[in-house]
Amino acid sequence: MAFYRNMVIILTHGLRNDAIGDAQHWPLRTTYMHKLMQRGTRLIGTSACPADSGAMISLLTGRHARQHGHLDQMANPGRHIVHDGFPAVLHKAGYYLAGVGCVAPIMASMDESLLVQQVEHVRPTGCQYMAAMRNAGQLDVLVQQREQRQRYGPFDPQRLVIDPDQDIDGYIGRRAQEQLLRMPTDRPWALIVMFSGPGNELPPPPLYQALVDPRILEDGFKPVDLRNVDRYAELDYPRVLLQRLEPRQLGWIRSDYLGRVALIDHGVGRLMGALRRRGDRDHTWFMLTSDRGALLGEHGLIGHRSFLSAALEVPVLIVPPTPTPRRDWQSVLVNTIDVPATITALGACDPPTGCRGQSLLPLLGDDFEQVTADGVCLSEFSRRLMLETSQHRVIFDTESHEALGLYDLMRDSEECENLVDTVAGENVLDGLRLKLANELMPLHAA
Fold this sequence. Notes:
Layout: E1 6-13, H1 31-39, E2 41-47, H2 52-61, H3 65-68, H4 86-92, E3 96-101, E4 112-115, H5 128-135, H6 139-152, H7 168-182, E5 189-198, H8 229-232, H9 239-244, H10 247-276, E6 284-290, E7 295-296, E8 302-303, H11 309-312, E9 313-319, E10 327-329, H12 338-346, H13 368-371, E11 377-381, E12 384-388, E13 392-397, E14 403-408, H14 423-440
Parallel strand pairs: 1-5, 1-6, 2-10, 3-4, 3-5
Antiparallel strand pairs: 2-9, 6-9, 7-8, 11-12, 12-13, 13-14
């Protein structure tokens, strides 16, 4: 092949858009992600599907949750095998594919893979990370930590004295670096790295704990309002844990999350360093995004089963080999289903079957209108359905068809004022229902 593009594709779990250091929302600098942003295009406010399994499947296939049908909160993403996503398309086109990390859904499309099971598995089978920790004599403590996580989530984590490379994401980062150095030189390749965090709700290893003083992360604490919580979210944790949440505990939850972001940023740095050692670096692209975000105290909530911005908005970085003038597209409405179409376009392939997304590559050439033709985003989990326009976000109950929430994002960026039962809300709901109908008509369950 005379010309081809290699790809390093980094997928994370629960990385919220404002956790990247340039957002300046949190006092943490993500050094290596920032370097990537300086070389490429950064999409801001990309909408995801917050369902556990559905979000990652949408990110792999380019199909809405309504199409692939995985909306169940308890569904295990590792049990869903994706045969028709962007990895399968690239593989069929002649790409050499390697996967490192939580790649169970796409292993069928890999030429080689190193499987790490998600932390929901307390005693996973086939997980090379847990096998390595068994050999290191750390298996029992890791199992205990995962059992503690199942009971209490991030509220009362068990902290382990382990090396960063013995952490699940530290291990993935190190092994991905080794794999990148082994990728072939005589054919196009794609390395897919799937981290388990930062939304895995585990505390980071000691070197990454309290990188940010938890005390300064207590600011903005608000007790949960249980009278209105059902309009904002389907709870991931018992209400009693949210009722007991207090500023000091929230500070540690946020600090642990940022520590995990920093650990993954270090893994990104390892990959950047390994690529510099390869002769084909001048035609290798980077992409980084996440399946969903995470709530860290917004409206007193912890978790992700919500359409509040922190749970919904994720970063998308598209970085060509040659640095381009940095662009931060703040007014472009895109969805994570656009990522597979973008990746397959890089590989000069058609998008996956049923993909509803569109390639974002025109943004690199300032072709603004081509990418924003429909001007809306759609997302869904369980029995909640969201439509977002440039000004409004509306959430419906798919069984009762009741509008649960309506927010004017231009005037109320923190989503504090629900307009559903107001005169102003009534005036815009009919138009939004029509837009929603136009979006739903082409979609069919897989």
